Amino acid sequence: MESPEQIRDRLLARFPGAEISVVTNPGIAAQHSLLLGAAHARAIAEFLRDDPTLKLDQCSNVTGIDWPEKEIVETKNISTPDPANPAAPPKVVEQKTKRLQLGFLEVVYHLYSITHRHGPVIFRLRTGNRTDQATVPSLTPVWRSCEFQEREAFDLFGITFDGHPDLRRILMWDEFKDHPMRRDYAEPDDYEWEPTPHGTVLEKTKAHYPPPPALVAAPTVLPAAPAAPVKGATP
Amino acid sequence: MFKRDPEDCPLSQEVTPPPPAVTEAERDELRRQGILLTSLQELYTWGNSHSVWPLNFGLACCAIEMIAASMAKFDIARFGSEVFRPSPRQADLLIVSGTVTKKMAPQVIRLWNQMPEPKYCIAMGACAISGGPFKQGYNVLKGIDRFIPVDIYIPGCPPRPEALLHGLVQLQKKIQGFKLTGPDAPRHLRDDQPCNCPVPEFGEHDLEPPANPEVWTAPPAIVRKD
């Protein structure tokens, strides 16, 4: 099967002006993916499905990802020569710049070809932000198997799929307002005591139940080491 | 449903059971001679306890164990509960067998309300008792006893069919201990206790209300004593 770079080159030749880039996966799986712009996504999807050498006729998986706003700190070394003594080695100053990366939502599609028995080809679509531009084009008209999975991403992540034939919540009830898979989701505060809390559950326990009274410290068995004299302390 | 006239037998009236005229040993001796001595209360609870018909209703993997309990190897028919009814109108026992999601909870409570009295509820498995492994999730009810009164809790994940049979026998013992009159009478023989539970609404963030205060209160803070 063609590599993502080859597919990207072929797509750029076929759709000039489309935004297509390769997102590399640095992990051991090395499943690199294509990042598509929303404008040409539908046409590219149809091309991937119908192209005789690719023939990606099955969309097996649609996944949502939430990328919240995050601050990126970039460190740069700047060397400035000393004006008083030009012969001395330049002074190196570490300069940190902070950059705010806006949050967005992402949808990942995994494609396989039943005809040619190859795959997966992975591509991603990104929304403009996490609030009012959380829209990507729906690919349900291209692969029918996307229908329920896009509804799931709509339900749990709040991604609106433009052109979906039946975009309703699928897991939670219709009256539900939140999107539980978003990282800033706050679940209802109905914690109940449990015997062995740990991790985030322990934090909830502390918030809901008073801590047990501290045990009375038992006298130490070992003789205490002579304390070092503290400077300036009055005896 | 059997309705008692409140004027005829008010609940406030203290009923002191008279001492038994015939002792247990004498009754056994008489039974060997072919004479059966009993009371209406014993007959009533004996009949009730040996024909507990469960609702044919499963939620998750515990339901598989419930089905296994009804098959030949474990044979729930030995205890008179083989008639799984497909309609809540004909069932006596609601076995909550599995995870109750918040989306499913109103339907479970509606089934409970549709069952005629006398009715009993078994919470089968960790999920039905407390939410189990999904207790900290946003979408799972932390125990069906938040909304309906539960008679028997069967722990396990899932409990084996023997555990379900044991729970059923415990329920039968509980039914056999019922009094027909007086302040200890069960819910279905009293006028002051409702047999229906309010069905929660789907709210914007959670079920509204998140629990039925008539049957459930939050567990108290546990502070270790030193």
Secondary-structure map:
The complex is a heterodimer of chains A (235) and B (226).
Chain A: H1 4-14, E1 20-23, E2 33-36, H2 41-50, E3 58-67, E4 70-80, E5 91-101, E6 104-113, E7 118-126, E8 135-137, H3 146-157, E9 160-162, H4 200-208
Parallel strand pairs in A: 2-7, 8-9
Antiparallel strand pairs in A: 1-2, 3-6, 4-5, 6-7
Chain B: H1 24-32, H2 40-49, H3 61-70, E1 93-97, H4 105-114, E2 120-124, H5 125-130, E3 152-154, H6 161-176, E4 201-202, E5 207-208
Parallel strand pairs in B: 1-2, 2-3
Antiparallel strand pairs in B: 4-5
Helix pairs in contact in B: 2-6, 3-6
How does this model look, in words?
Chain A is built from four helices and nine strands; from the N terminus they run αββαββββββαβα. Chain A is an alpha/beta fold. In chain A, strand 8, helix 3 and strand 9 (160-162) form a beta-alpha-beta unit. In chain A, 20% of the residues are buried. The model of chain A has no long low-confidence stretch (mean pLDDT 85). Helices cover 27% and strands 8% of the residues of chain B. Chain B contains six helices and five strands; from the N terminus they run H-H-H-E-H-E-H-E-H-E-E. Chain B has helices at residues 24-32, 40-49, 61-70, 105-114, 125-130, 161-176, and strands spanning 93-97, 120-124, 152-154, 201-202, 207-208. Chain B has a three-stranded parallel sheet, with helices on both faces. A two-stranded antiparallel ribbon of chain B has the order 4-5. In chain B, helix 2 runs antiparallel to helix 6 (161-176) and helix 3 crosses helix 6. The chains are: A alpha/beta (235), B alpha/beta (226).
